[in-house]
């Protein structure tokens, strides 16, 4: 059975929330969209809201899928969903750091090779979201 990992494109105005992985060693230090595994019986939306609450202490409303489905390991698929921040200040508990980036900041991370490989597939979609903040 395919497992799904869901990641949040949390948007606040012209900025996107990115989080710096602390593990595993090959991903540590790189930036990702925060999230985690969908547990049995959960919808992707429920899982994402739960993970962002647990990992970052924020409350979000989960919206549509952003970009395509990415296979991160055999039998493990990653999807991103647009989220709007409803409450809380993102705080790194499992991550090394969290940061808000605008379109230029996201491009700079990508150009520096500092984005986790799987997420680079979403860059055009994420930049389009940041360039059209009124679409929220
Ligand atoms: N959350 C997240 N995981 C990603 C992204 N890109 C990417 O390749 N991954 C990979 C890293 C991990 O192999 C897997 C998700 O692991 P995770 O550590 O975030 O999820 P989790 O909290 O549910 O994991 P765990 O505590 O049960 O080990 O997907 C991304 O943007 N967000």
TrEMBL record:
Record-linked PANTHER family: 8-OXO-DGTP DIPHOSPHATASE, NUDIX HYDROLASE FAMILY PROTEIN
MF terms in GO: 8-oxo-7,8-dihydrodeoxyguanosine triphosphate pyrophosphatase activity; 8-oxo-7,8-dihydroguanosine triphosphate pyrophosphatase activity; 8-oxo-dGDP phosphatase activity; 8-oxo-GDP phosphatase activity; metal ion binding
Protein name: 8-oxo-dGTP diphosphatase
Organism of origin: Williamsia herbipolensis
Residues covered by the Nudix hydrolase domain: 1-128
Cofactors, names only: Mg(2+)
Any Pfam family hit: NUDIX
Top-rank taxon, per record: Bacteria
Family under the similarity heading: Belongs to the Nudix hydrolase family.
Keywords tagged on the record: DNA damage, DNA repair, DNA replication, Hydrolase, Magnesium, Metal-binding, Mutator protein
Catalyses which reaction(s): 8-oxo-dGTP + H2O = 8-oxo-dGMP + diphosphate + H(+)
Record-linked InterPro entries: MutT-like, Nudix_hydrolase, NUDIX_hydrolase-like_dom_sf, NUDIX_hydrolase_CS, NUDIX_hydrolase_dom
Stored PROSITE patterns: NUDIX (PS51462), NUDIX_BOX (PS00893)
GO biological process: DNA repair; DNA replication
EC class (word): hydrolase
Residues passing through the membrane, by range: none
Taxonomic lineage of the native organism: Bacteria, Bacillati, Actinomycetota, Actinomycetes, Mycobacteriales
Signal sequence region: none
